[in-house]
């Protein structure tokens, strides 16, 4: 058996689709996101992961025009606030919200996460990111981000501090003793007096220990520093290696690093990003794929605008009929750039972008064919599951939840019912 989750942002839905209605266009009310998550819960997904960024990018061609026209990085709402709303309208599925260890004060993040975990009965998770854009840093009074590997060193200390704050209340500190009139036993609430290289906090938190002990921690480390950090701290990883050999190699690396960090590697779930294209028959799915990829120029520009934002490299200045320049470098998503550079070896940028796919493996066909592909991938890599990334119009969502998932359930590959109450229970069920 393997796990299923979905990756999206608190941004506009696929608003140009004929399968999007008024609810999808009025995305800021959150109602359409509730409908979406309820569909995932009916399909027994583990969780929804909400991505975030904290800037309006103007890297591509030196202006925000292309980024805002696409509506991918802005407008964007706060994922933690949306998570709280979504969890109040569901009962079993988890929600993971992105919050930056570079910009959010540790004590505030610890309390926000603990609060949502309490409100949801233990179904919240934190996607720990270090952020990757200088434009975001400038919104928080900084000139630029710290260097890439230093951000992970800071994040490791940050997670240590946040975890100690969650642990500052013993599990049985709340006593509600009517005879003595004592609500909380003060001997079971402890200052932490944390003094690190980059962070300090007296503690304790002013809220009880979260229902899960600590909310689930998610990470997306792909660089050596990122993988080491994730293996030491994360419960679930979202990953984007290309092809089965790289997927297996990545998962094996994480499990080995986890053992070196003194952890049980089975406690870390590696989910690979996929964007299934489904239809009644394989032939119809291939036709749909060809239709989606027909406008090559638009596809290339969208990818360049996207990566210009995350890597802060202005891809508009490169000649598409030449290879990627050797001096192209980033302080942001280094693993994505390295993966693309390996993929683009010997190709022009136009050729590379035309052939490049954002998912780990191609999943195209009928539900039965797609299920075959996913089962074979899990058999080859050893686990642990997949993170769907695709348009959230009604047609696409229901093709997954009401087409692919029932086929996987019939084969015994994904759950038909939730076994536990907490998000961590879902992840450790198998």
Report on this model:
The chain is an alpha/beta fold. It has 16 helices and 14 strands. It has an eight-stranded parallel β-barrel with strand order 1-2-3-4-9-10-11-14, surrounded by five helices. The radius of gyration is 22 Å and the shape is globular.
In short:
This protein has 430 residues and is α/β, with parallel strands linked by helices. It has helices at 22-25, 31-42, 65-70, 79-88, 106-119, 134-138, 148-166, 224-233, 244-260, 282-292, 296-311, 334-344, 349-355, 367-381, 394-410, 423-428; strands at 3-9, 47-51, 94-100, 124-129, 174-177, 182-184, 194-195, 200-201, 216-219, 236-239, 269-274, 277-278, 364-365, 385-388.
> What string, H for helix and E for strand, traces the elements in order?
EHHEHHEHEHHEEEEEHEHEEHHHHEHEHH
Distance between the termini: 7 Å
Mean of the pLDDT scores? 95
Q: How many strand units?
A: 14
Strands side by side in the biggest sheet: 1-2-3-4-9-10-11-14
Spans of at least 5 consecutive residues with low confidence: none
Oligomeric description of these chains: single chain
Number of helices: 16
Give the CA-based shape.
globular
CA radius of gyration: 22 Å
User: Helix proportion of residues, in percent?
Assistant: 40-55%
């Amino acid at each position: 058996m393997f796990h299923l989750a979905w990756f999206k942002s608190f941004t506009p839905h696929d608003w140009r689709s004929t399968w999007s209605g008024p609810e999808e266009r009025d995305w800021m009310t959150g109602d359409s996101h509730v409908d979406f998550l309820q569909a995932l819960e009916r399909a027994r997904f583990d969780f929804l992961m909400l991505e975030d960024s904290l800037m309006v990018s103007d890297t591509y061609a030196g202006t925000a025009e292309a980024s805002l026209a696409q509506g991918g990085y802005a407008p964007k709402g706060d994922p933690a606030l949306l998570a709280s709303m979504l969890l109040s309208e569901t009962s079993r599925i988890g929600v993971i919200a992105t919050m930056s260890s570079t910009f959010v004060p540790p004590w505030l993040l610890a309390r926000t996460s603990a609060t949502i975990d309490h409100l949801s009965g233990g179904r919240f998770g934190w996607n720990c990111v270090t952020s990757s854009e200088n434009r975001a840093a400038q919104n928080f009074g900084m000139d630029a981000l710290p260097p890439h590997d230093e951000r992970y060193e800071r994040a490791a200390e940050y997670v240590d501090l946040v975890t100690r704050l969650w642990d500052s209340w013993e599990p049985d500190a709340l006593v509600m003793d009517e005879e003595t009139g004592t609500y909380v036993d003060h001997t079971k609430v402890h200052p932490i007096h944390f003094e690190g290289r980059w962070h300090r906090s007296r503690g304790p938190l002013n809220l009880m220990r979260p229902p899960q002990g600590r909310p689930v921690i998610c990470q997306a480390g792909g660089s050596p520093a990122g993988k080491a950090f994730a293996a030491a701290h994360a419960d679930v990883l979202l990953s984007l290696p290309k092809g089965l050999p790289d997927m297996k190699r990545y998962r094996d690396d994480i499990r080995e690093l986890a053992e070196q960090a003194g952890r049980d590697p089975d406690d870390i779930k590696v989910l690979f990003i996929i964007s299934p294209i489904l239809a009644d028959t394989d032939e119809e799915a291939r036709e749909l794929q060809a239709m989606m990829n027909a406008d090559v120029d638009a596809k290339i520009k969208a990818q360049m605008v996207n990566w210009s934002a995350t890597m802060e490299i202005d891809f508009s200045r490169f000649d598409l009929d030449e290879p990627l320049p050797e001096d192209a470098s980033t302080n942001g998503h280094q693993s994505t750039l390295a993966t693309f550079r390996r993929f683009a070896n010997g190709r022009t940028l136009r050729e590379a972008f035309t052939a490049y796919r954002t998912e780990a493996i191609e999943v195209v066909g009928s539900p039965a064919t797609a299920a075959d592909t996913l089962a074979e991938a899990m058999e080859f890599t050893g686990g642990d599951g997949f993170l769907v990334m695709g348009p959230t119009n009604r047609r696409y969502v229901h093709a997954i939840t009401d087409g692919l998932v029932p086929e996987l359930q019939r084969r015994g590959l994904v759950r038909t019912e939730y076994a536990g109450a907490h998000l961590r229970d879902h992840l450790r069920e198998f």
